[in-house]
Design brief:
The structure is a single chain. The chain has 172 residues and is mainly α. The chain has one domain. 74% of the residues lie in helices and 0% in strands. The chain has seven helices and no strands. The longest helix has 26 residues. The chain is globular and about 50 Å long. The model has no long low-confidence stretch (mean pLDDT 87).
């Protein structure tokens, strides 16, 4: 999230003059909804996986998330950006749910059998990062995003490799 595309979208929207309180409310509602939906889906998928498959699922999700962070940068700023909070909400909801972050939420909820706790943690993470992006606005661009993308992506790839080669005892 910190080096991801959703934070850049929110920062652009904020820099274009969006109301910070309205943006923070939208971020909170979207984060809770998307993370809750991912956790609910995890509850539906959990019975389909053996413990070993769960560890591979988590590892694959972490690897995909790492590759996404490293290789997929935020799209260029639109030439005619919308100022619609509804449109931003839809894009953020889809981004949180359908990007690698949603897959990580889903896989961790399946592997831990604690979808509510995973959803709460994920929603808090999304709210914090995108909330800071909303408050930062144009200053968000001052972050060294390329090094951050490689650092965060590298950590995610390493975590996936560790789970593959040294699966947690609870998932064997």
């Amino acid at each position: 999230m910190l080096a991801g595309r959703e934070a850049v979208r929110v920062a652009r929207f904020s820099a274009a003059g969006a109301s910070a309180p309205a943006l923070l409310v939208l971020i909170t509602l979207v984060s809770i909804g998307a993370c809750a939906l991912a956790a609910w889906l995890a509850g539906e998928f959990a019975p389909l996986f053996t413990p070993r498959q769960q560890s591979w699922f988590v590892a694959a999700a972490l690897v995909f998330a790492g590759l996404e962070v490293i290789f997929l940068d935020a799209p260029p700023a639109p030439k005619e950006p919308t100022r619609s909070l509804g449109a931003l909400g839809i894009v953020l909801f889809a981004g949180v749910l359908a990007d690698a972050s949603g897959l990580v939420i889903l896989s961790l909820a399946v592997a831990t059998a604690e979808p509510v706790l995973v959803a709460i943690g994920a929603a808090l993470a999304v709210i914090i990062v995108t909330g800071f992006a909303a408050l930062a606005g144009e200053d968000w661009y001052k972050l060294p995003r390329v090094p951050l993308r490689f650092a965060v992506g590298g950590v995610l790839l390493a975590a996936g490799a560790i789970i593959v080669f040294f699966p947690p005892a609870a998932l064997q």
